[in-house]
TrEMBL record:
This is Chitooligosaccharide deacetylase. It is found in: Secreted. The keyword ATP-binding does not apply. Its main location: secreted. The keyword Signal applies. CDD domains: CE4_NodB_like_5s_6s. It comes from Azospirillum thermophilum. GO terms for cellular component: extracellular region. Transmembrane segments: none annotated.
Length: 312
């Protein structure tokens, strides 16, 4: 099915037409998590042929000043979520392709041996999706009862996140944004926890990196009006969703659209993902499964995960 859709997009020229119509002046933001360097090299080479790399700071400045023409044609921003340990292997690629990504960090996981909660044996047994649908205290309780307390460090050799030294060493090739402290589903947090996850992540990152933290990304792409208001109150310049689409001068900077990209996808399917077609199909499938009722914010991660991994 994927091969047929990719062939159709290429044969009809739909991807190229959409890039010209939507991406020439609209900002494309792509979302990765833990890509293999060989895969990302192919992706960056493809982007370099079809887009011009820019940064979130440049996009925010263009939005704030009204000088949208300051951005290059076909502007593209690369982002990575969570701060996975192997992101450090990507630094040579960022230098080679002269791209400065934003890496969104979880401030209470980076610099520790605490696992990402969805990458634990307990989450595998319970199922990550059910855990996303319960309150945050209940999620923590279920994980702890199943043997994986989210606040407990694993063995040092099982560290999943970057260390603070690694974060600082990559500061010459990457910017850093906030992705909450512990990667909860913010909609499942009470008001106090939601505010702390958003605001304290920023202050903790600034303390560790010594640089301003201006950008935020919603864990799992889930957000509502409360979350946007807390981000505004905390002083962020932008907040990135995973709602598919392009960003323009009138886009709300605290609801930036983005295209999630599979960490292990080939370039043919990458081109399809940047049309938004997979997101549309998944959304339609979700609506049909709910009997046509739109449940609000769509939290699809847009990716076909690697075996044994769940992308949040």
């Amino acid at each position: 099915m994927k091969r047929a859709i990719a062939g159709l997009v290429r044969w009809t020229g739909f991807g190229a037409l959409l890039r010209f119509a939507c991406a020439r002046r609209g900002v494309t933001i792509v979302v990765y998590h833990d890509p293999d360097p060989a895969v990302l090299r192919r992706h960056l080479a493809w982007y370099a042929r079809h887009y011009r790399f820019t940064t979130l700071d440049a996009v925010a400045a263009a939005m704030e000043s009204g000088r949208w023409d300051d951005l290059p044609p076909y502007p593209l921003v690369v982002t990575l979520d969570d701060g996975h340990r192997d992101n450090t292997r990507l630094a040579p690629l960022f230098r080679e392709f002269d791209v400065r990504p934003t890496i969104y960090l979880c401030s209470r996981i980076v610099g520790t041996a605490r696992p990402y909660w969805w990458k634990t044996a307990a989450a595998d047994r319970i199922g990550p999706e059910p855990l996303k649908r319960v309150s945050d205290p209940e999620r923590r309780r279920l994980l702890a009862e199943a043997g994986d307390d989210p606040d407990r460090d694993a063995a040092p050799d099982q560290r999943q996140a970057m260390s603070w030294d690694e974060v600082r060493r990559m500061a010459d090739v990457a910017d850093y944004g906030a992705h909450t402290r512990t990667h909860p589903i913010l909609l499942q947090c009470d008001d106090r926890s939601c505010a702390e996850e958003i605001a304290l992540c920023r202050s903790e990152l600034e303390e560790q990196t010594g640089t301003p933290c201006r950008h935020f990304a919603f864990p799992n792409g889930d957000y509502g009006g409360r979350e946007v208001e807390e981000i505004r109150r905390a002083g962020y310049r932008t907040a990135r969703t995973i709602d598919p689409g392009w960003n323009h001068a009138g886009t709300d900077p605290l609801r930036l659209k983005a295209f999630p990209v599979s960490d292990d996808v080939d370039v043919a399917w990458l081109a399809v993902q940047l049309t938004g077609v997979p997101a549309l199909l998944r959304r339609m499938k979700g609506l049909l499964s709910r009997g046509g009722r739109d449940g609000g914010t769509t939290a699809w991660d847009g990716a076909v995960p690697k075996a044994g991994r769940v992308r949040v």
